[in-house]
Specification:
It is built from 9 helices and 14 strands. It is α/β, with parallel strands linked by helices.
């Protein structure tokens, strides 16, 4: 039970957070509006009034929406909450971009004003707002709106197959040429287009992999989010088995529960969902796959993330009983686990498969060039990494969370071909 004072301070902290957030939003809002006001000076008063009402009307609706977002039931109003959050984010970024150019113009005006005051300044320059900068500000504001809208309409379900061939000295001959497929970060609680989601599974099935892996985050918060999608993802199968692990969102840590028991019950329900789909869920466990008398070990560690992320994983328990295996594949949702524990403690884990980062759902990928803001948080955040004889593959994710789209970093199905060197 949280004491009354604790509840009070928690409530007040939330209020202060919203006050600060809205204060920042309104500051950018007003600053961006100065460009609109300048460019509409020549219009009739009725047009100017209409534009002003529309502009500030949208702002008012967004602020009210965000305020109600915090109190609306996350499941019953899931789609409305998504629209509110996304709209607020899109317009927030748009106004930040627009405000930067208005700020540049104000800096120019300030420098010009100071210059005009100097005694040797014979010619006086105008300190009025430049029409070019005002127009540039509006164009800059339109770019995030266009890009983020396109990311929702096109990027959210633009599934791509990413292929890599990896050579291992320790790979048993019977597994030379085996093709494994990985999906990660499905996040069923964010989906809004079931047909498009099913299209990604069709893409997976056309690859006909030998082994299938799912590396966590089936839901955002609660198991019930996955109900409508279980029969879609149940289709993901492979001859040598489909194996899965839990991601940080699968433990219900980001939502409120009436009791510890209700949270645990939801986790157990999620476990049953994996079983229903035919996924062999590994909870700090391992399985051995045998082909023509030779074996490899599949290890599944529960979520372990550096920093503030939960550390349910027990790597020692996960590898126990596989010491005699010459080749081991580890499923571990968070790629930070690789540098923190996997490589230092288990030098004989040949391949680790992770997800988690989503590539931040935003970035640039051109050929071998790859950039996303998430790289400043995660050393390994997308694609294949190697240290000595150990490899890590970080899947960019199948779904999305928060912003319901992707810009530049597209959802993927990973196909890895294992070859003996």
């Amino acid at each position: 039970m949280i004491p009354f004072t604790g509840v009070f301070f928690l409530y007040m902290s939330r209020i202060y957070f919203f006050i600060i957030l809205f204060g920042i939003y309104l500051a950018f809002d007003y600053y961006a509006f100065t460009a609109i006001r300048f460019l509409t000076n020549e219009m009739s008063s009725s047009w100017r009034r209409g534009i002003t009402i529309c502009y500030w009307g949208i702002t008012t609706l967004l602020i009210l929406g965000v305020f109600l977002y915090n109190y609306a039931d996350s499941e019953e109003f899931r789609e409305i909450r998504m629209v509110v959050f996304t709209s607020f984010a899109i317009f927030f970024f748009a106004k930040i971009f627009a405000s930067l150019f208005v700020l540049l113009d104000d800096l120019r005006r300030m420098v010009t004003y100071v210059f005009n005051l100097l005694p040797f300044s014979e010619k006086k320059y105008s300190t009025g707002r430049a029409e070019f900068m005002a127009r540039t500000a509006l164009i800059a504001g339109a770019i995030p709106i266009a890009a983020m809208s396109f990311g929702i309409i096109s990027g959210a379900h633009d599934y791509r197959v990413r292929r890599r061939t990896i050579y291992f000295k320790s790979l048993p001959k019977a597994f030379d040429g085996v093709r494994i497929a990985q999906v990660s970060d499905i996040h069923t609680g964010s989906f809004f287009n079931k047909t498009a989601v099913e299209g990604g599974v069709d893409l997976f099935l056309r690859e006909k992999p030998d082994i299938a892996f799912f590396t966590g985050d089936l839901v955002n918060n609660k198991s019930e989010e996955a109900k409508d999608y279980l029969d879609i993802f149940k289709r993901i199968k492979a001859p040598l088995g489909t194996y899965s692990v839990m991601g940080n969102h699968d433990y219900g840590d980001y939502t409120d529960w009436p009791s510890v028991e209700s949270k645990q019950k939801d986790i157990e329900n999620l476990h049953r969902m994996h079983a229903y789909m035919g996924y062999d869920l590994l909870l700090n466990q391992h399985r051995k796959i045998k082909v023509n008398g030779e074996e490899i070990a599949i290890l599944g560690c529960e979520n372990w993330g550096s920093g503030r992320f939960a550390k349910y994983g027990d790597l020692t328990k996960t590898v126990e009983g596989t010491e005699d295996q010459t080749f081991r594949i580890l499923l571990s949702h968070d790629p930070s686990h690789w540098d923190a524990q996997v490589r230092p403690q288990q030098s004989v884990i040949d391949l680790t498969l992770s997800g988690h980062t989503h590539g931040m759902q935003f970035g640039v990928e051109i050929g071998d060039f790859r950039w996303s803001p998430v790289q400043y948080r995660y050393k390994q955040w997308a694609d294949l990494y190697r240290e000595g004889d150990q490899y890590l593959y970080v899947n960019r994710g199948y779904g999305y969370i928060g912003y319901p789209g992707r810009i530049g970093i597209l959802p993927e199905v990973t196909i890895l071909e294992l070859r003996k060197s």
